[in-house]
Amino acid sequence: MLVWLDLHQPEREVLDALAVELDLDPLAVEDAVEPRERPKATRHASHTFLTCYSTRLSGEDFDVARLELGRVSAFVMKNALITVRPDDLVDMDAILERWSGDGLLSHGVAALVHGMLDELVDGHFNTIEHMDEALEGLEDLLFDPATKTRVIQQRIFGIRKSLVQLRRVVLPMREVVTAVMRFRTEGGNALSTELDGNFNDLYDHVIRASEWTDSLRDVVSSVFETNLSLQDSRLNEVMKKLAGWGAIIAVPTAVTGWFGQNLPYPGFSDVFGLWQSALLILLGTVGLYILFRKVDWI
């Protein structure tokens, strides 16, 4: 007979009583209720203990989006699976559908473990794919002059923060799946070996998810560095234009300063002097403007 028991936000007294009844290891029970446990798989005398996380992105824009992590712990025995959930973030209905749709329940508890892990890993893939799409949109915003730098910085920070949290639960899944495959025939933890191919395929999915998160980390770093380079380039462009306009403004300043001295000069106290100074200002200003436009300074 195959038994599955799901405990949602159980009281510690309930877990302790269940541990005494089923001979569950006290350290495993402690890990099931301890917050912020990393994904892992440990073997005990009468069972294997697993801790895994589901992932989901909340919100549409990455400047406000947050990564939601749902935790599920499991006690795997020869003919039973006990899951412990501290919240509602893990979609157990989807896992139930996976168990029913796979048609593998005849293989016993191994099918339950495989279906649960497979559903969680598929959720990791969906989250990674959404992050990848967000990064592509962010790359387009980098070269859009209408986009404010602050908006880009907020989105980069949001993606980096979510990606760090995601890597903490995705990368250890390689150890979890490897440990389950290693423990599957040991003593009281014996699982059906007929699903070796399914577990190998699951391990391949975990490796792909890990490699994808590593590539996204490289992309985020590249986007961050590109954003800094673009800011430096824009600053240099602004300084170059300010220097060009400063040179242009210096021409009339120099001319008016020279002719403003109370000394006789050609056209002094004559209308000709006015026209002469105006012509010098005009020629100098227009000449520098054409020169700077030609060398793309302004």
Describe the structure.
This protein is of the alpha+beta class. It folds into two domains: 3-233, Beta Polymerase, domain 2, CATH 3.30.460; 238-294. The chain is 62% helix and 13% strand. It has helices at residues 12-22, 26-33, 92-102, 109-142, 149-170, 173-183, 196-259, 271-294, and strands at 3-8, 40-43, 48-58, 66-76, 80-85. It has a five-stranded mixed sheet with strand order 1-5-4-3-2, sandwiched between helices.
Task: List the main descriptive attributes of the protein structure presented here.
298 residues, alpha+beta, Beta Polymerase, domain 2, 2 domains, five-stranded mixed β-sheet, 13% strand, rod-shaped
Tell me briefly what this model is.
With 298 residues, this protein is an alpha+beta fold. The protein has helices at 12-22, 26-33, 92-102, 109-142, 149-170, 173-183, 196-259, 271-294; strands at 3-8, 40-43, 48-58, 66-76, 80-85.
Q: Give the count of helical stretches.
A: 8
Number of domains: 2
CATH homology group of the largest domain? CorA soluble domain-like
> Topology as H/E string?
EHHEEEEHHHHHH
* CA radius of gyration: 34 Å
Q: Segments where pLDDT lies below 50 for 5+ residues?
A: none
Percent range of helical residues: 55-70%
Q: Biggest sheet, strands in spatial order?
A: 1-5-4-3-2
Report the count of strand segments.
5
Portion in strands: 5-15%
| Structural class label | alpha+beta
Give the overall average pLDDT.
82
The description of the largest β-sheet is: 5 strands, mixed
End-to-end Cα distance: 81 Å
CATH class of the largest domain: Alpha Beta
The outline comes out as rod-shaped
- Report the CATH topology name of the largest domain: Beta Polymerase, domain 2
Which CATH-level-2 architecture of the largest domain? 2-Layer Sandwich
